[in-house]
């Protein structure tokens, strides 16, 4: 079984004696190293406020010896007399649910990459003095290295803001995280830097355009993580700009043109052209000029992350990593500003008016919760009963019968469109049809169209038909939509967590001309039906219900039951579509711009295709993760998505022209 599952097996009862048992979330137990030769040096009882539990609890502080040879990292081997504290914190129920519901073929490991380009801040360049000339020649001043990552991590206070990044799943009890702390700040910083060496590593850059990066992504999505050792890792590589495919060619051309313009402007200001041509080179001056020219060499740095879902959900991880950015303070200030406005709005009016307003709001909330819960349950039952099988099941069975079943993942990514253009298309069609269409509705419609084309291609391959034969149409497909309960935001003062739910909705499959009205095309009619389906589900408390049901399964049901229920709960859905909202401006880490960011979903059991729609810096991007037997050519799949988007753009242009 996968290492992430093996690593959380509970040890025998004797080993469990090292830890205190808790009945409430957020409990903490500590084990300190002591010079005593006995197993136990002291057992005391203290009172602490438990943040997760929200109240004071009795917590046992266990002080004992820790084996100094437990790690093969030289930085982690303790010298005699160094005291450590192992803090044990309760894992979130959703995090434990991810451990219980994952399987060997479907590990719960979100993966994403950040592609950086540009010049680092001078403070980030660790080379000084004469050696900096040679580092410029080797583009050292333009590379983002592991040392830069560790420096940014410590400078931004990530261990304090998000201590869970330095946790592991306890080998004694998989309901808890463990964090090791030293008794002094200097020792603690040394320990954290040594731990970052285990999490961050440099690797060879990608030599074959897109294919090398694609292979590593596919491998990382299905390779297990030993959760008792670490919960996340990042691989950093540097190479010529555009060589990996992490940054699209259009963005690469824009970056190169900007660099040329900057270099031309610098040459004009300093008149270096005339000076270099008219003077003779002395000792070392030729190298110096070459070094200056090398500073303009376009370099890209690719940070390839993967985390286990036990640590946090993917949206929270990406939101937390914005604390590494140079604009972190600005982002936190914007969030605080929105919160202040919300609180000020709550304080408006007299005390009686505020009381009545609060009473009305709570009444509406309870009505929505009670009746919405009933409606969500009945709709889920309807989908379970009427969807007898997954449309891709026949594809898998045919591949197994012919001996052509290919396991593993297939991934692809692309920059889809400007965000404002997509909003304009949704707004134009929505106003013409009298409905409120969102960007998420727009791309869910495009993705369902691509799913239908993929199924049609499989059916043609499975059973080629003559021209007079009619193939049975896939009338409906079920789609899973994950929902972050905080809108993908980690509030100031909060750490990462698993605040995620989901709902299942039915979307149109293959559409015929008879299904379309006279004033609409097939693409527009599909979009309208998708909009109605999504509105019905996302306005219900279904994401909240799924969140608490997952917590219940995690806390009270056996692993086998949890896995079975998790697979059945998707109502034979064939695709999961996640919409991640990124920052509206381009972010930087150590002065280097994040030019591209793409996330890849871990496929839930039973769902063969996952698509992420992500906005960042005014643009929309798409990434697809799929079973190889379901989507053998992911590049073509994304091409089908964009072809449907192009048809909707043409429809919007016609509607706008007709209106004018």
Count helical runs.
Answer: 20
Which whole number gives the mean pLDDT? 79
The order of strands across the largest sheet is 2-3-1-4-7-6
| Range of strand content | 15-25%
Query: Mind describing the biggest β-sheet?
Result: 6 strands, mixed
Structural class: alpha+beta
Head-to-tail CA distance between termini: 63 Å
Proportion of helical residues: 40-55%
Care to count the β-strands?
18
Gyration radius over CA:
28 Å
- Provide the low-confidence segments as ranges: 1-81, 126-140, 276-281
Query: What overall form do the CA principal axes indicate?
Result: globular
Q: Your description of this structure?
A:
This protein has a six-stranded mixed sheet with strand order 2-3-1-4-7-6. Strands 8-9-10-5-16-15 form a six-stranded mixed sheet. A six-stranded mixed sheet has the order 11-18-17-14-12-13, sandwiched between helices. 42% of the residues lie in helices and 20% in strands. α2 packs across α18 and α16 crosses α20. β17 and β18 form a beta hairpin. The N terminus is likely disordered. The chain is globular and about 65 Å long. By secondary structure, it is an alpha+beta fold.
């Amino acid at each position: 079984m996968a290492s992430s599952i093996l690593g959380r097996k509970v040890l025998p009862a004797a080993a469990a004696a090292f830890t205190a048992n808790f009945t409430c979330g957020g409990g903490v137990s500590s084990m300190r190293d002591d010079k005593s030769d006995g197993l136990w040096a002291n057992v005391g009882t203290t009172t602490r406020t438990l943040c997760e539990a929200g109240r004071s609890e009795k917590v046992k502080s266990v002080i004992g010896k820790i084996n100094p040879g437990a790690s093969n990292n030289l930085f982690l081997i303790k010298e005699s007399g160094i005291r450590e504290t192992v803090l044990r914190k309760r894992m979130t129920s959703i995090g434990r649910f991810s451990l219980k519901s994952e399987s060997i073929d479907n590990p719960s490991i979100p993966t994403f990459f950040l592609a950086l380009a540009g010049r680092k801040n001078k403070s980030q360049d660790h080379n000084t003095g004469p050696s900096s000339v040679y580092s410029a020649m080797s583009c050292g001043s333009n590379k983002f290295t592991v040392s830069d990552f560790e420096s940014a991590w410590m400078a931004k206070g990530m261990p304090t803001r998000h201590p869970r990044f330095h946790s592991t799943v306890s080998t004694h009890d998989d309901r808890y995280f463990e964090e090791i702390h030293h008794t002094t700040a200097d020792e603690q910083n040394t320990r954290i830097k040594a731990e970052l060496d285990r999490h961050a590593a440099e690797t060879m850059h990608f030599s074959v355009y897109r294919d090398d990066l694609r292979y590593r992504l596919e491998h990382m999505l299905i390779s297990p993580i030993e959760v008792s050792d670490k919960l996340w890792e990042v691989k950093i590589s540097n190479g010529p700009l555009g060589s990996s495919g992490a940054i699209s060619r259009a963005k690469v051309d824009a970056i190169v043109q900007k660099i040329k313009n900057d270099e031309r402007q610098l040459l004009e200001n300093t008149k270096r052209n005339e000076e270099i041509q008219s003077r003779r080179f002395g000792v070392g001056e030729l190298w110096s000029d070459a070094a200056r020219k090398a500073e303009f060499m376009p370099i890209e740095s690719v940070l390839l992350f993967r985390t286990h879902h036990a640590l946090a959900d993917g949206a929270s991880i990406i939101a937390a990593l914005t604390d590494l950015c140079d604009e972190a303070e600005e982002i936190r200030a914007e969030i605080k500003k929105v919160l202040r406005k919300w609180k000020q709005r709550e304080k408006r009016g007299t005390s009686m008016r505020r009381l009545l307003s609060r009473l009305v709001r709570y009444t509406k909330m309870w009505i929505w919760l009670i009746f919405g819960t009933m409606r969500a349950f009945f709709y889920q039952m309807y989908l379970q009963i009427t969807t007898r099988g997954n449309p891709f099941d026949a594809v898998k069975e045919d591949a197994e019968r012919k001996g052509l079943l290919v396991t593993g993942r297939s991934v692809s990514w692309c920059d889809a469109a400007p965000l404002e253009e997509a909003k304009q298309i949704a707004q134009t069609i929505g106003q013409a049809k009298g409905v409120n269409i969102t960007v998420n509705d727009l791309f869910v419609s495009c993705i369902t169209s691509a799913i239908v084309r993929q199924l049609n291609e499989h059916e043609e391959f499975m059973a080629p038909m003559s021209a007079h034969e009619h193939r049975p149409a896939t009338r409906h497909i079920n789609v899973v939509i994950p929902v972050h309960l905080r809108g993908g935001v980690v509030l100031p003062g909060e750490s990462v967590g698993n605040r995620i739910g989901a709902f299942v909705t039915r979307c149109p499959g293959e559409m015929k001309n008879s299904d379309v009205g006279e004033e609409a095309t097939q693409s527009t009619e599909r979009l309208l039906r998708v909009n109605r389906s999504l509105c019905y589900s996302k306005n219900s408390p279904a994401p909240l219900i799924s969140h608490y049901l997952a917590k219940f399964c995690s806390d009270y049901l056996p692993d086998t039951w949890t896995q079975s229920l998790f697979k059945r709960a998707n109502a034979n859905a064939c695709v999961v579509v996640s919409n991640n909202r990124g920052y509206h401006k381009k972010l930087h880490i150590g002065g280097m711009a994040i030019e591209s960011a793409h996330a890849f979903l871990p496929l839930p059991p039973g769902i063969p295709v996952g698509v992420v729609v992500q906005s960042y810096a005014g643009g929309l991007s798409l990434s697809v993760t799929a079973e190889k037997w379901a989507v053998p050519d992911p590049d073509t799949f994304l091409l089908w998505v964009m072809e449907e988007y192009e048809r909707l753009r043409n429809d919007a242009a016609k509607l706008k022209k007709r209106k004018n």
